[in-house]
Automatic annotation (TrEMBL):
Its main location: cytoplasm. It is found in: Cytoplasm. One of its GO terms (cellular component) is cytosol. This is Argininosuccinate lyase. Keywords: Amino-acid biosynthesis, Arginine biosynthesis, Cytoplasm, Lyase.
Length: 457
């Protein structure tokens, strides 16, 4: 049953109907549409459109419908209703007859869909916060178990200075903590109810919208009806938060793919999250991580798509806005799944601490230490930097690390170098020295783990 038949004498072309209908994707708003309808029915009692008894019958029928939907959500897709709002109303009329036709008094699908979507977003944001926290927890626990695994830290993908695997884990924990705080912040703006704004100009019934908002679990009602039915900032905002977080996850994935490569060999991914090659029997491919990296693209695409859809739209509601859902659902589903996968990947990674340490030793990652040593002995830093560069070239020629060069050899480059240089060139010393807040020294890392655990408890 179409909601708007009276004005029309011809049936819709089937191809147009398919093009126009949104049920095949907005069926996911069923619960929210029912919840919104119950609240609206209560509001209609306050303005004498429904009697208390009628409202109770409607609420009862809506409760039954909710139970049906929860039991079998896919039944919705068997209907040829235009959208989830028509579907709920149609089902209600099937259950209670003409009384069901009173529910839409003073309401429009425009304030209805805006309300449904915000309710859905609020629910989904909480799911996402839980998932973002789970990945942080997995990272922190991985850090705690691998506090002493030394590996090279990179800039330009060149071995730069030694770090620990724990320190690397904690870097991603920070990114996800910011993702979490962005979600928490988004909740504040999501928490305002558009219901009771009608089609665009407000509802003609003297409804207490603040009370209505409260019934729906919103902390207040929106201030302007035109804005309320045409605002999709929350969709943009969540897709933008998803995009940023997916960028974090894609970098996490890329680092791990590299760590897992034959060239690095720092970690080995579990069989549970890798796949084989149909041709090359030796292969174990990091598919889970590659998909996390790859799926980042579609999330950015959904955000850009929706921004372009909303750009230049005149006030108030336009059908263009129906395009908000598919991208948003896909972006948030994808993000949630990638968060879950990230936990799974971390669950049983194996570290090869020997390989990690060798790589840290081989990359001349302690060159900065030698320069700092010269500076401490009074050599200006620029000069020290140059001297160490020459020492490194010579060590590379011999194929040995700095700490294995003889003192005589060192002295060819600078007289100031003495026996006391050797302890400073050890990996452990490189780490220990970086003991200011946020540094890689064990004391700082242990403190960071404690702090993160407390935040995530
Ligand atoms: N299916 C529509 C959407 O998702 C519901 C709102 C329809 N409003 C309208 N005036 N046609 O946006």
């Amino acid at each position: 049953m179409a909601l708007w038949g009276g004005r029309f004498t011809q049936a819709a072309d089937q191809r147009f109907k398919h093009f126009n209908d949104s049920l095949r994707f907005d069926y996911r708003l069923a619960e929210q549409d029912i919840t919104g309808s119950v609240a609206w029915s209560k509001a209609l009692v306050t303005v004498n459109v429904l009697t208390r008894e009628e409202q109770q019958r409607l609420e009862q029928a809506l409760a039954e419908l909710l139970a049906d939907v929860r039991e079998n959500p896919m039944q919705i897709l068997e209907s040829d209703a235009e959208d989830i709002h028509s579907w709920v109303e149609g089902k209600l009329i099937d259950k209670v007859g003409d009384l069901g036709k009173k529910l839409h008094t003073g309401r429009s699908r425009n304030d209805q869909v805006a309300t449904d979507l915000k309710l859905w977003c609020k629910f989904q944001v909480n799911e996402l916060i839980t998932a973002v926290r789970a990945v942080q927890r997995a990272l922190v626990e991985t850090a705690a178990t691998h506090q002493d695994v030394v590996m090279p830290g990179y800039t330009h993908l060149q071995r730069a200075q030694p770090i620990t695997f724990a320190h690397w884990c904690l870097a991603y924990t920070e990114m996800l903590a910011r993702d979490q705080s962005r979600l928490e912040d988004a909740l504040k703006r999501l928490d305002v109810s558009p219901l009771g704004c009608g089609a665009l100009a407000g509802t003609a019934y003297p409804i207490d919208r603040e009370q209505l908002a409260e019934w729906l679990g919103f902390s207040s009602a929106t201030r302007n009806s035109l804005d309320s039915v045409s605002d999709r900032d929350h969709a943009l905002e969540l897709m933008s938060h998803a995009s940023i977080s997916m960028i974090h996850l894609s970098r996490f994935a890329e680092d791990m793919i590299f760590f897992n490569s034959g060239e690095a060999g720092f970690i080995e991914l579990s069989d549970k999250v890798t796949s084989g090659s149909s041709l090359m029997p030796q292969k174990k491919n990091p598919d889970a991580l590659e998909l996390i990296r790859g799926k980042c693209g579609r999330v950015q695409g959904a955000l850009t798509g929706m921004m372009m859809t909303l750009k230049g739209l005149p006030l108030a509601y336009n059908k263009d806005m129906q395009e908000d859902k598919e991208g948003l659902f896909d972006a948030l589903d994808t993000w949630l799944e990638c968060l879950h996968m990230s936990c799974l990947v971390l669950e049983d990674i194996q570290l090869n601490s020997t390989r990690c340490k060798e790589a840290a030793e081989q990359g001349y990652a302690n060159s900065t230490e030698l320069a700092d040593y010269l500076v401490a002995k009074g050599v200006p830093f620029r000069e020290a930097h140059h001297i160490v560069g020459e020492v490194v070239v010579s060590a590379i020629k011999q194929g040995i690390p700095l700490e294995q060069l003889s003192l005589e050899h060192f002295k060819q480059f600078s007289d100031t170098i003495e026996e006391d240089v050797y302890p400073l060139l050890s990996l452990q010393s490189c780490l220990d020295k970086r003991n200011a807040k946020g540094g890689v020294a064990r004391e700082q890392v242990t403190y960071a783990i404690e702090q993160a655990r407390a935040r995530l408890a």
